[in-house]
Amino acid sequence: MLMMKKVQIQKRMITRLLKIKEVYAHCDIPCGIYDPHSAQIAALTVLRMMDLIAENGDNPRYVAVKEEHAEICKHEIRVIWGDAIKDNSSDDLTHKIMQVASRCKQGSDRKDGEELLDLVNQFAEKFWQSKSIEVKKVKAPYKPEEEIVEPDLQ
Amino acid sequence: MIYRVKGKSMEPLYKEGSLLVAVKTAPLVGKDILLRDPREKSRILLKRLVKMDSEGMFVEGLNRGMSTDSKEFGKVSKENYVARVLFRLW
């Protein structure tokens, strides 16, 4: 134990004396799993909360969940855009998603929610096609029962 | 120049906290190199140089299941090359 402490102190001293720089043996995501599905679920949740707000009024919980999932949607899209997409072809679409998701956080206009879902679906379509995977449109089996783009893995 | 390793993508050869000596000589395929992260130029990466051609350098981590490298960000332009690892101190 004393020996280990001594070695650690020596390492620290050498680091300070020699001005050692850090190099990154780096891993963003150990599993390498990228899937826009989480963003689509978040966009559907935003839309569902907008519907509930329209039906039942401005319940703070609906508003909080709407804002939280608009932020989740932005985060999920940003991670795929930054880490998995190698070219610039999705830059404009990603920027648009960021803007519309922010609008969804600020207000409860269903048109904004629909636009967000549409843009995220476009993003998903481009993402899967970039992996040479065909896509299909399916209606979500739960409210708000909107269409989402999924990989056709048959 | 001496560098300290941060991260696990070059295990088992370089562990978190390993110290290594690298010099600014020409890159060699099959050797471990330091290069600027093409996505964040201020960060220097440690990777193995697997292939090199006119399009750039293809680099990989030794710990393949846990490495963000050319499999993710593609070939890296040669101007991002920093130095070649000579040896590991510990």
From TrEMBL, chain B:
Domain annotation Peptidase S24/S26A/S26B/S26C: ranges: 2-67
Listed InterPro entries: LexA/Signal_pep-like_sf (IPR036286), Peptidase_S24_S26A/B/C (IPR015927), Peptidase_S26 (IPR019533)
Protein name as annotated: Peptidase S24/S26A/S26B/S26C domain-containing protein
Origin superkingdom: Bacteria
GO molecular function: serine-type endopeptidase activity
Example of a GO biological process term: signal peptide processing
Annotated GO CC locations: endomembrane system
Compartment list: Endomembrane system
CDD domains given in the database record: S26_SPase_I (cd06530)
Source lineage: Bacteria, Candidatus Yanofskyibacteriota
TM regions (residue ranges): none
